[in-house]
Amino acid sequence: MNGQELGEPEFNAVLAGAYDVPVVFLSGDEVTCDNARKFIGDWLEVAAVKRAVGRESAICSHPSVTTKLIAERAQKAAASVEQAHPRKIEEPVTLEMRFLMSKMADQAAIFPGAERISGRTVRVGSATVVEAYRSMLTLFALARNAM
Q1: What is the CATH number of the domain that holds 117?
Q2: Is the domain of 56 the same as that of 117?
Q3: Are 50 and 71 contacting, i.e. CB atoms less than 8 angstroms apart?
Q4: Which of 83, 115, 135 is the last residue of a domain?
Q5: Taking phi first (over 0 means left), then psi (-120 to 50 degrees means alpha), and beta for anything else, what does residue 3 get?
Q6: Would the pTM of this model clear 0.85, i.e. be above it?
Q7: How many Å apart are CA 135 and CA 111, to the nearest integer?
Q8: Residue 45 phi, psi (nearest 5)
Q9: pLDDT of 39
Q10: Which string of DSSP letters, residue by residue, matches 10-76?
Q11: Cα–Cα distance for residue pair 137/140, rounded to 1 Å
């Protein structure tokens, strides 16, 4: 988005920011938590409950450990919410999506206004972050048709 590589937590933080809502807590794998904290801000409380070992696999902590960790960090986040501020991004928005396979980009490229910029990447412009989010959802739905 606007030249910044964003994962799902970062994109969701920007979407929340469009509504003036700060993100204060995140639970996920270690890398996701680290990346989100760098992008969102130091106030973000995180609970790293697993270690990713592949695209669709992870080594997960036992629920007895994660339940306690999540509760503690969420409580800490709620207690310090005044420190947080919404994560905004400049509008209008240019969104580039890189897909796993070129056939997914083939499908996504039929979206009105989409521009194919490489074998697996499609670009769309949006006036707002909310519009970019809607475009992203549509591009994903179109790409799924290739599967």
Answers
A1: 3.30.1360.130
A2: no
A3: no
A4: 83
A5: left
A6: yes
A7: 8
A8: -85, 135
A9: 95
A10: HHHHHHHHHTT----EEEEEHHHHHHHHHHH-TT-EEEEEEEEEETTEEEEPPHHHHHHHHHHHHHH
A11: 5
Eight-state DSSP code of residue 84: -
Pick from 130, 132, 127, 40: nearest CA to 95? 132
Q: Which residue has the tokens 């696999």?
A: 57
Per-residue pLDDT tens over the stretch 31-42: 999 999 999 999
| Degrees, nearest 5: CA angle 132-136-141 | 150
Place of tokens 């799924």: 144
Its domain, for residue 14, covers 8-83
Same domain, 78 and 135: no
State residue 97's pLDDT score. Answer: 94
Query: Considering 35, 50, 83, which residue would you say is the last residue of a domain?
Result: 83
Report the distance separating Cα 95 and Cα 117, nearest Å: 12
Do residues 93 and 129 touch, judged by C-beta distance below 8 A? yes
In a domain, 21, yes or no: yes
Count of alpha carbons within 13 angstroms of residue 38, beta-carbon side? 10
